[in-house]
Write a structure and sequence with these properties.
Elements: H1 12-21, E1 24-28, H2 37-47, E2 51-55, E3 63-64, E4 67-68, E5 82-85, H3 92-100, E6 108-111, H4 118-131
Parallel strand pairs: 1-2, 1-5, 5-6
Antiparallel strand pairs: 3-4
Helix pairs in contact: 3-4
Length: 132
């Protein structure tokens, strides 16, 4: 994504391309509560054939939709293509730091509607430009 991208609205084709290219997803803030949006999104993603790894320190070692829950992104047993964030905006900077510490970076960090931190969103680009 370039810096000219409008982060207030994304074209449907752009979002579809992200979802078509992703196979493995870490879902941060996964919840066993069927009333929580993260639970419904996880169920939907699993029904569409994605491999989903729920991440929630308070649920680590338990299962959500038959999938083991991990405490941290670093605990997920394989690289992921996409990190789907169900955390409040104030946690995004920490999420980006955790993602950047992974040995293999995902292609996308996807924050849910209403979750936004423009400074945290710029961090991956800054990191990529330093390593070039």
């Amino acid at each position: 994504m370039n810096s000219a991208t409008n982060h207030d609205r994304y074209e449907p084709d752009y979002l579809a391309d992200i979802l078509k290219s992703a196979k493995t997803i870490a879902l941060l803030g996964g919840s066993p509560n069927p009333e929580r949006p993260s639970n419904g999104v996880m169920r939907f993603l699993l029904s569409r054939g994605y491999e989903v790894f729920p991440v929630n320190p308070g649920q680590a070692g338990k299962e959500i939709h038959g999938r083991t829950v991990y405490a941290r992104l670093a605990d997920v047993p394989q690289p992921v293509d996409l990190v789907d964030v169900f955390r409040a905006s104030e946690y995004l900077e920490g999420v980006v730091d955790e993602v950047l510490a992974l040995p293999q970076l995902p292609s996308v960090i996807w924050a849910q509607l209403g979750v936004r931190d423009d400074a945290a969103g710029a961090a991956p680009r800054r990191s990529a430009s330093r390593s070039s």
